[in-house]
Design a protein that fits this description.
It is a single chain. With 202 residues, the chain is of the alpha/beta class. It is built from seven helices and four strands; from the N terminus they run ααβαβααβααβ. Strands 1-2-3-4 form a four-stranded parallel β-sheet, with helices on both faces. Strand 1, helix 3 and strand 2 form a beta-alpha-beta unit.
Length: 202
């Protein structure tokens, strides 16, 4: 299996997640460089504009859906042929608690992340006998650069929903993703793993 340290020594791969051709090129480049592609973590995302639905434009909607949902679909579609052929693979899709509960003033984001949850469950069932395990993580607000895209009011709303009273840290998400990407994750597929500081209610 290719480790992060090995990947860092390889060539950078340009990838626009909105472009299915870029995905195909990136997969070929990784396999050419490393011999196989074993793990995909779909983590690219944008928050979109913080505004009520009636103030959003069709372009506001498309921008978020193109990255946060279509990008995940294209990524899974691109890696699954080689994973199925080698009879081993792990896909971890990063959704959001917003996809389960819906966040006001974040309709495109909430809809896209709900779509990622459904997509994860459906694909997992398609490849369940092929050695490929597909799961998703639904974090609450995590202290990353994406917070710069949302209003202060929206940040306060999300934080107020977390019983622990703090934002999650990237390292906490990474620890769960690492397990979901490992051999130890062998009997969980099509599952949704909350990482919400107690926010999740179901």
């Amino acid at each position: 299996m290719c480790l992060a340290a090995d990947i860092a020594e390889g060539a950078d791969v340009h990838l626009d997640v909105r472009d299915p051709d870029d995905w195909e090129d990136a997969v070929r480049a990784v396999i050419r460089e490393h011999g196989s592609l074993d793990i995909l973590v779909n983590n690219a995302g944008i928050a979109g504009r913080s505004a009520p639905n009636w103030e959003l434009t069709p372009e506001d909607w498309r921008q978020v859906l193109d990255v946060d949902l279509s990008g995940v679909f294209y990524g899974c579609r691109a890696v699954l042929p080689s994973m199925r052929e080698q009879r081993w693979g792990r896909i971890v899709n990063i959704a959001s608690i917003a996809g389960k509960e819906g966040n006001p003033n974040a309709v495109p984001y909430s809809a896209a992340k709900a779509g990622v949850i459904g997509l994860t469950k459906a694909i997992a069932k398609e490849v369940v006998m092929d050695g490929v395990i597909v799961n998703c993580v639904t974090p609450a607000v995590i202290e990353t650069e994406i917070l710069k895209q949302v209003s202060e009011e929206h940040r306060r709303y999300m934080l107020a929903k977390i019983p622990m009273g703090r934002m999650g840290q990237p390292e906490e998400v990474a620890a769960l993703v690492a397990w979901l990407s490992s051999d130890e994750c062998s009997f969980s597929t099509g599952a949704v793993f909350d990482l919400s500081g107690g926010r999740a209610t179901y």
